[in-house]
Amino acid sequence: MLDPQTLAWDDFKLVRLIAEAKGLAGAAERLGVNHSTVFRRLGQLEDAIGTKLFERHRTGYALTAAGEEMAALAERMDDDVAGFARKLAGQVLSPAGELRVTTNDTLLTHLLTPLFARFCQQCPDVRLDVVLSNQALNLSKRDADVAIRATDTPPETLVGRRAATLAWALYGRAADFPQPGTLDLPTLFAHAWVALGDNLGAVKAARFVRERVAPERIVYKVNTVLGLTEAVEAGIGIGPLPCFIADARAALLRLAPPNSYFSTGLWLLTHPDLRHSARVRVFLDFLAAEITKLRKYLEGGGR
Fold first, then answer.
1. Distance CA 229, CA 89 (A)
2. Which domain, by its residues, includes 294?
């Protein structure tokens, strides 16, 4: 069996040039070498692959079936290279293919969907497959290509950037606090509270409520940030919420300044083997730029 490493691009180019020139002299001229060099290279190639590429006639060199295959492939390769060069020259080289993105429902609903829509308009050849999960999917097994996570401890096996800090603050239903400026922390601890469920107990805001609020004051738990927001808006109790979600709801009132203890990083992550992929790179760069525009809002700057 022929070892594929026996053949090189120059071999295909040689066959194509001899075929176009119908002889060695014309090919030698185009290659800038002498006739004997082309003769020797063709002989070495035919010996290596074990078949004749040309029939020698008095009228010139005619391709055999194997030679026709090589010449046709060389022409396609030339066309592909030329097309790639044109794209580079015109700066129209664009990423394409499917990109699988994992994030959670909170980020998708309140932040990412409009950004994804703009990305799809800008890069129509990239198809997004969005997977909602609060768990860390295994990017090394291609469960996803990109992970967008609110965390202060991104997995060491992934690479990426911290795009922003997500601020949290204490909120209540505006109708329940006509004079919020008179409130102090001991007064707030006397209110009914809502909290994240035990499955999100590692979230810093959840730990704060668990450690600082009397258990009998925690009247409602829910295992999603979206559910927590709905509960505060419904007047079930007060609780810490991400500012970028709560500030967008007129029915909610910020009861205290953003607490740095609650804040968390917003990370854009991928597997090291994928970071040079064109579609991964352009997607991460796009998101980082868009999130930078929203940084003040995400970091508690208000509506």
1. 51
2. 97-166+264-298
Cβ pair 67, 112 in contact under 8 A: no
User: Is 203 within 8 Å of 104 (Cβ atoms)?
Assistant: no
* Strand arrangement, sheet containing 146-150: 126-132, 97-103, 146-150, 264-270, 159-166
What is the C-alpha separation between 16 and 104, in angstroms, rounded? 55
User: Residue holding tokens 């109708």?
Assistant: 175
Looking at this protein, which amino acid is placed at residue 53? L
- The pTM of the full predicted model, rounded to 2 decimals, is 0.66
pLDDT tens per residue across span 168-185: 999 999 999 987 666 777
Main-chain dihedrals φ then ψ at residue 196, nearest 5 degrees:
-70, 150
Distant-in-sequence, close-in-space partners of 154: CB < 8 Å, separation ≥ 6: 160, 265, 267, 269
Closest CA relative to residue 148, chosen from 241, 265, 229, 243: 265
> Helix, strand, or coil here: 128?
strand
pLDDT digits (tens, 9 = 90+) for 57-107: 888 898 999 989 999 998 888 877 766 665 554 444 568 889 999 999 999
Q: With respect to residue 63, please indicate whether it lies within any of the assigned structural domains.
A: yes
Domain count, the chain: 3
